[in-house]
Write a structure and sequence with these properties.
The protein is an alpha/beta fold. It folds into 2 domains: 2-162, Leucine Aminopeptidase, subunit E, domain 1, CATH 3.40.220.10; 177-492, 3-Layer(aba) Sandwich (Aminopeptidase). Helices cover 34% and strands 19% of the residues. The protein contains 14 helices and 20 strands. It has helices spanning 31-39, 43-48, 87-103, 122-137, 169-192, 200-214, 223-229, 232-238, 292-306, 352-363, 379-385, 397-410, 443-452, 483-492; strands spanning 2-6, 17-22, 60-64, 73-78, 108-111, 156-160, 217-221, 246-253, 262-266, 268-272, 312-322, 334-336, 342-344, 370-375, 390-394, 414-416, 434-435, 460-464, 470-471, 477-478. The strands form 4 sheets. Strands 7, 8, 9, 10, 11, 14, 15, 16 and 18 form a 9-stranded mixed beta sheet that branches. The protein has a 6-stranded mixed beta sheet with strand order 1-6-5-2-4-3, with helices on one face. The chain has a 3-stranded mixed beta sheet with strand order 12-13-17. A hairpin with a 5-residue loop joins strand 19 and strand 20 (477-478). Helix 4 (122-137) runs parallel beside helix 5, helix 6 packs parallel to helix 9 and helix 10 packs parallel to helix 13. The longest helix has 24 residues, at 169-192. 54% of the residues are buried. The structure holds ligand BES, manganese (II) ion and zinc ion (ZN). Ligand BES binds at residues 272, 290, 347, 349-352, 376-380, 382, 437, 443, 466.
Length: 495
Amino acid sequence: MRYKLSFLSPARQHCHTLILGLYSDQRKPTGPSAELDAALGGLIATLLGKKGLDFHEGQLVPLHEPRGTAAKVVLLIGLGESASFSPAAFQRAVTAATRAAMEHGATQICNYLTTLETPKDAAHRIKQALLATADAAYRFDHYKGTPKKHATRLGQVHFASARRGRNTAEQRALREAEATAEGMQLARDLANQPPNVCTPAYLARAALRLRASHGLKVRVLERAAMRKLGMGALLAVAQGSRQTPRFIILEHRGVKGSQAPIVLVGKGVTFDTGGISLKPAAAMDEMKYDMCGGASVLGALAAAARLELPRSVVGLVPAVENMPGGGAARPGDIVTNMAGKSIEILNTDAEGRLILCDALSYARRYKPSRIVDVATLTGACVVALGHHATGLLSNADNLAEELLEAGAQSGDRAWRLPLWEEYQSQLRSPFADIANIGGRAAGTITAACFLSRFTKGQKWAHLDIAGTAWHSGKRKGASGRPVPLLTQFLLNTRS
Ligand code: BES
Ligand code: MN
Ligand code: ZN
């Protein structure tokens, strides 16, 4: 998809579909709608006074081959009452109008919703509009025999902007949103792949492709190298599967010389059966999404490279499949991680923290300024926060603030949970340094407590994306979250 800003009056737009929003309490056309109204001989003013046409939120009024304009279709969309129009309503309007335009077979869109006054700054409107457009246009139908009815692909979208010029805030917003959308698409495509295709080796190949396409430095460790490093926890998860594990290392070097990097760590469990502590059958297919943390780290690194961010970023993705094979780890097994800590595996379904603890131990060697891990770690997080907020836990208040802020800015929000030392005792093991589960109470917190044992002395935060990484039900599919949060965080963080 190609995105651009456009500065033309709507009457002069040569495009397939022109999208324009109208409020339900609007009496007469203003701004771009007034310009279009003049070209259409007063048609919009007439429609605004019509009974039965109230331009309530989501109402779509397509005008085909309107005389006086260069567009094939002018698509009017109702915005509801102007006083209650919110940034979320803005996103919904962009999504609904784009979907409708695609159903009309739009190949190019010119979108005037970006000239509205909400959200209040133009750069922000452009960013959100681009992300909503990319979301509406996203398809994953590689495995469908017959192409969808409206297979004509939308190729170009222009967003109307009032301010001309190079390197304006609006231009920068467009570029940042484009890179974010590209990172999200990569993450979604990887996650939506079926688990028989998206294996640890497949994830590693996807990462290696980012060398040529994005100029990232990428290395992949195989089992022997991990054994040498002493990654006993990660290897214990991998040992029940015929798929061999990979440890993926990506580096974006945005500055010459040495700068303490930000290290992003992403859980890459390409399928989580639970292992010997087998999961129930219902919805187990969704455990193909257990690599969404890893996929979002690939997406964020791709975005950082695309934007040539002037800072160092390292991505680490431990990739394994959690299966109950004959060689699988048992409940009761004690393993030793890379940092030399012994772990009693009481439940093989708490595998994410096992692979992450080795990756977090590995992260130390970069002497990072911050470590952020991303993982579909606990069902408990879905119970606590549902599907709107990502769970955030951290040992550093300023890092937590940076992530909350990046989430609020990008609309990809997180919510902090406590990581008080009182919770740590739930992880006591009679036989090892630590147990891998902490009982029913506060499952998301005790999972983070487990990880915190491997990040002592580091500025570290953990994002639990179990509720936000994918949608269930009718619109099943990966969401691309938290690529927007991570990309914004990398954009904001200069030192
Ligand atoms: N990948 C799951 C977490 C998960 C479950 C994410 C459902 C999204 C939806 C993770 O590996 C897991 O199984 N966690 C266990 C931990 C428990 C055994 C302490 C869980 O949440 O039940
Ligand atoms: Mn599990
Ligand atoms: Zn898992």
